[in-house]
Design brief:
Elements (H helix, E strand, L loop, with lengths): L1 H15 L8 H14 L5 H15 L18 H15 L3 H11 L9 H7 L23 H4 L4
Helix pairs in contact: 2-3, 2-4, 4-5, 5-6
């Protein structure tokens, strides 16, 4: 009888100790990169909306709120692709799911691009871009996007 109690208590402890997907090192890295990269480029409201949407996306929840309802000057379509690629590769998210997320968060920036095209071009290096792709084996620090775009 004591063994059964020990086992059930051990199970309860294991369940209580489950780590939220948001608390994993990769998710923390992606969230910090997103907030740091877009600081000074997005308004505080847009930045918080993108943060909330990204966290919901990581948790597998639907993202109902669009973060950025405008075009960002000098921020190119390929920059959005690279932003998505950096996230997708670290979190092992399929390209199509990432493309859907990007299209929902940057609809003006991606207005003329189909989800299938976004999915195919996440890793594209063709054309002009500011935001670099960072190999998943390397750290993903915030990128000084505002400075590179001449916003600050």
């Amino acid at each position: 009888m004591d063994k059964a109690v020990e086992q059930s208590e051990g199970t309860a402890i294991n369940v209580a100790e489950e780590v939220s997907p948001l608390d994993t090192p990769k998710a923390q890295e992606v969230i910090a990169n997103t907030l740091g990269t877009f600081a000074g480029v997005l308004t505080n409201e847009e930045l918080m909306s993108l943060d909330n949407s990204l966290k919901a996306f990581i948790l597998g929840e639907s993202t109902r709120q669009t973060a950025v309802n405008r075009r960002i000057s000098k921020f190119r379509t390929h920059d959005v692709y690279h932003f998505g690629w950096n996230i997708a590769k670290r979190l092992k998210i399929p390209n199509t799911m990432m493309a859907e997320f990007l299209k929902s968060q940057f609809p003006w920036q991606l207005a003329d691009v189909e989800i299938s095209t976004i999915a195919k071009k996440l890793s594209s290096d063709e054309g002009a871009f500011t935001l670099p792709k960072v190999e998943p084996r390397l750290p993903l620090p915030p990128y000084p996007l505002a400075k590179k775009l001449g916003i600050c």
